[in-house]
């Protein structure tokens, strides 16, 4: 087992400061976002990979709190099929960590040609995405060297929260600005539960990661991290979809990791799912969910007490730490998963 500190672990620890810089840079742009909001009615997110998981958070956030229909684009409609779609009244939000993924830039340009206004969210200042968008939200994560996205992902979530504020969401910007301190405390806390869960996961081939609503994005991103850095057959699902059939795969050899904010309308269902999984004899681990979820799980990792809408920015951090810990336990290098690079081009 590798014991040296990974670059991924160092970059996880950099997230509080990266989030502070990002919020300082982006909150002043709320008036410009509001202007774009007055010209549009619904939002189309354009993204791939971790950025696509961030877009899922943005979609829930805007629909639940800004009263706007928000959907995820299918980039192949633009890049492969070359179809034309009426996007008048649409705000197309393209998300790319580097801002250099051609498919995402091309799809955003296609959206503009179809009548949409455009926003680019990226960590790449001066990238093609920033140059093509009507308005660029440039996150301030700094250089990210490890292939698994950590600080670029959480700063994307922060940018999406700022987008929601600009589009009229009745949210407390003060709660958003409290997130970096909350994450800093969580990273500094003893990591015993994460070590124990990693020990339990080291002997399995697959796992189900589930959350609902705002936390669904966290389940998807956690599953992606475990797949790309630990080579675990991890399935990220909404718990509503899990109950429609795939729950059959959860057994003594396929644990469930359940993710939830410490409060909110999806918490009772998450607790009920934990109880059901446990009664079936399967291991169940929790991230967040307060004492209610902890009591229903074999092991759990506490999460900061943030409002449900802001919680996903912090909920992913324990999953990042778990991924890094498990990868090293398995003897893998979490910084450089096999077959992956920092920028993925899709033809």
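^ structure tokens above, recovered residues below v
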């Amino acid at each position: 087992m590798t014991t040296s500190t990974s670059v991924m672990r160092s970059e996880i620890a950099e997230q509080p400061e990266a989030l502070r810089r990002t919020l300082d840079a982006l909150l002043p742009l709320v008036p410009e976002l509001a202007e774009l909001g007055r010209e549009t009615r619904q939002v189309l997110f354009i993204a791939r990979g971790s950025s696509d998981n961030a877009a899922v958070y943005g979609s829930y956030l805007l629909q639940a709190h800004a009263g706007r229909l928000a959907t995820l684009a299918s980039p192949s409609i633009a890049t492969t099929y070359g179809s034309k779609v009426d996007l008048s009244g649409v705000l197309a939000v393209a998300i790319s960590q580097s801002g250099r993924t051609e498919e995402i830039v091309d799809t955003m340009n296609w959206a503009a040609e179809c009548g949409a206004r455009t926003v680019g969210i990226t960590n790449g200042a001066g990238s093609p995405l920033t140059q093509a968008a009507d308005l660029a939200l440039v996150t301030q994560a700094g250089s990210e060297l490890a292939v698994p996205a950590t600080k670029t992902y959480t700063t994307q979530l922060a940018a999406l929260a700022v987008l929601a504020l600009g589009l009229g969401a009745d949210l407390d910007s003060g709660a958003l600005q409290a997130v970096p301190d909350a994450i800093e405390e969580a990273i500094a806390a003893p990591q015993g539960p994460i070590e124990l869960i990693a020990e339990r996961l080291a002997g399995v081939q697959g796992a189900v990661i589930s959350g609902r609503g705002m936390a669904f994005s966290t389940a998807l991103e956690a599953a992606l991290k475990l797949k790309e850095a630990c080579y675990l057959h991890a399935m990220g699902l909404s718990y509503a979809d899990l109950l429609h059939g795939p729950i059959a795969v959860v057994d003594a050899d396929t644990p469930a990791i359940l993710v939830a904010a410490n409060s909110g309308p999806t918490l009772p269902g998450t607790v009920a799912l934990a109880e059901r999984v446990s009664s079936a004899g399967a291991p169940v681990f929790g991230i967040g969910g307060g004492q209610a979820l902890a009591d229903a799980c074999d092991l759990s990792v506490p999460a900061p007490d943030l409002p449900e809408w802001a919680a996903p920015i912090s909920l992913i951090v324990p999953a990042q730490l778990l991924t890094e810990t498990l990868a090293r336990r398995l003897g893998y290098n979490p910084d450089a998963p096999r077959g992956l690079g920092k920028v993925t081009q899709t033809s």
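The longest strand covers residues 90-96.
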